[in-house]
Amino acid sequence: MVRRLVLVQHLLLVVLVVVGVARALATGTAPLPLLIASAALLLWYAVGARAASVRLREPGPRSSGRTDGGLRAGGWWLLGLVACWLVATAVSPDLVWVAFSVWLLAGHLLPLRGAVVLGLLVLVVVVARGGHAEGWSTAAVVGPSVGALFALALSRGLQALVRDNAERRRLIASLVAAQEEAEELHAELAQAQREAGVLAERTRLSRDIHDTLAQGFSSILLLARAGTATDDPVGQRRLLDQIGASAADHLDEARRVVGALAPAPLESGLTDAVRRIAGRFEDETGVEAQVRVDGDVGGLPPPLEVALLRTAQTALANVRQHASAHRVVLTLAEAGDSVRLDVVDDGRGFVPEEAGARRETPSRGGYGLRAARERLRELGGDLEVESGPGRGTAVSAHVPRGTGRAPRGSW
Ligand SMILES: Nc1ncnc2c1ncn2[C@@H]1O[C@H](COP(=O)(O)OP(=O)(O)OP(=O)(O)O)[C@@H](O)[C@H]1O
Ligand SMILES: [Mg+2]
Question: Is residue 183 in some structural domain?
Fold first, then answer.
């Protein structure tokens, strides 16, 4: 729309000059000075018209009026145009109406005060020239005044409109940019959540594989070694049965780990599950395993039961692998708002600080207690180990009853 208005403005000046020249020629004005003056006027206009139309299309913010370099150049150009117009008007009063274009341009190119001052000066010339040529009358004053007022108001209004448009465009652009930024952030967040999900799943798998499959293979290995070490066919038969039972149990566990299901022993509650793994431990190792229950430890949310059961499995696996114990006692106890699990053996013991300081990689062991502690901490609980060479080992885990909601990674 603005482009069209700019065209109309150019056209208006050309029409005013052409009509003026035609009238002047018709009324017997000398052609040479008339043509030179009007050609100079058109030429000067053409030189700066492009800049003036750019200024109209892209007005700066309201406050920049005085310091704007482009505006200052436009102002000088306009003064030059006024000079050309004055010469043309001197040559023929028929060119006086080019003043309308001058008023429009003053409205576009000058700050309001400058536009009003220049507009008034031009108006004085128009009125004086008109009065001089055609006789003084009220119409000779009012007509040009209304014209000047109309042109100035038109150009200022137009400029406000264009400025609002530009501001709206800027606003839309910044909204679009903000939306794009929000979309990018959203994508990054989704990516981070995906990565966190992958990490949690990996942690769950590695802990569960450690507590179930790795311990299963290790017990099968021990049973197989015992089987090859004895010549007694009855003993071998019993060991083979145990290997079969252990393999079947752990195959079931493997399927549950992959399917992210709760462990099979927990289907009838934590106490039963601990009794069952203790009974199997005793059968396979010959180490006496006793289970005690102190208070109400039932009704825990599944993630808490899973965490305690896995801790018991890890602790029993350690007794089998490291303790050379004769007896192990597992105690499930109600302790205020928490539930505790203690696994105490009478084996050779160890220095917990040294075991912790070794920081082995999972592939070389040293993962069990650390993983159990992390799992319990995620649920608001913790794990402590008390031991010393020759003093046996006590592993003590606790979880607060309230933390029913747990991240997927804790199963
Ligand atoms: N009941 C125990 N008796 C004696 N030593 C123990 C006992 N429990 C743990 N330890 C010592 O603590 C170390 C760390 O145990 P942890 O369960 O973290 O790792 P690991 O058993 O060596 O390997 P992983 O469990 O990853 O297969 C063991 O290597 C062992 O030296
Ligand atoms: Mg271990």
Answer: no
Q: Name which residue leads in pLDDT, 15 or 263.
A: 15
Q: Give the residue, by CA position, lying nearest to ligand 1 atom 6.
A: 322
**Residue whose CB lies within 8 A of the most ligand 1 atoms, among 316, 350, 353, 370, for a mutation test:** 350
Within a 13 Å sphere around the CA of 102, how many CA atoms are in the beta-carbon half? 34
- Is residue 171 a part of any domain in this protein? no
Domain of residue 235 covers 191-410
Cα(200) to centroid(ligand 1), Å: 24
Percent of all residues in the chain with a pLDDT value above 90, rounded to a whole number: 50
Ligand 1 centroid vs 94 CA: distance in angstroms?
A: 110
Cβ–Cβ under 8 Å, residues 308 and 270: yes
Q: What is the pLDDT of residue 357?
A: 58
CATH code at position 320: 3.30.565.10
Average pLDDT over residues 70-74: 67
Please report whether residue 155 resides in a domain.
no
C-alpha 370 – ligand 2 centre gap (Å): 9
Q: What is the 3-state secondary structure (H, E, C) of 75-90?
A: HHHHHHHHHHHHHHHH
